Amino acid sequence: MLTNPPNLLTGARILAVPAMVAAFWLPGGFGKLVTCAIFTIAAVTDYFDGYLARSWSMQSPFGRMLDPIADKLLVGAAILMLVHFDRAPILPALVILCREILVSGLREFLAEAQVGLPVSRLAKWKTAVQMVAIGFLIAGSAAPWWLYAEHVGYYGLWFAAGLTCVTGFDYLLVGLRHSTGPRAQAESAGTRAAAVPVASPARTVRGP
User: Fold this and answer.
1) What secondary structure, in 3-state letters, does the chain show?
2) I want to staple 35 with a disulfide (CB 3.0 to 4.6 A). Which of 7, 17, 23, 114 is the partner?
3) pLDDT (tens digit, 9 = 90+) per residue, 187-198?
């Protein structure tokens, strides 16, 4: 399970995070290009690990657990470093990070209720836009001038933040339906009923 190709790619994405963070301190345009290359390669593995798992029938609970963790580590670390070096606007970065925390909490809650939280098509587009925007922001001024990397990354991150709000709200509605719906209320009532102690019937004492 730990050594099948999809899980190895996911693990490599996690291992790339500290390397990417360290590369942010490399000087000049060379450092930006190295950091962008590490991030891009790691981001591409996000597509291939899922593709290989589906194509080769290697999907596993471990892979389903590890994949979103790797994504959040990569995106969170990249955004924090960009904000730290004043190369990304803080507001959309904050929106994206808060949404990731929200979705993680919802997944944990729904897992206890044995309810899955499938990734929507819009969420996949959000991830793609987000990855491209972060890549352009990392490259920055080191990219060819005709790419307008800083502008594309700046507005792309704002666009990704907008999609983040929409998809985060959709996921929140799913969580609310399962936490306040009839099934949740029935489970809550059953829990309360089980917690009420049952009084033993009073015995009638007969005199001699």
Assistant:
1) CCCCHHHHHHHHHHHHHHHHHHHCCCCHHHHHHHHHHHHHHHHHHHHHHHHHHHHCCCCCHHHHHHHHHHHHHHHHHHHHHHHHCCCCCHHHHHHHHHHHHHHHHHHHHHHHCCCCCCCCHHHHHHHHHHHHHHHHHHHHHHCCHHHCHHHHHHHHHHHHHHHHHHHHHHHHHHHHHHHHCHHHHHHHHHHHHHHCCCCCCCCCCCCC
2) 23
3) 555 555 454 454
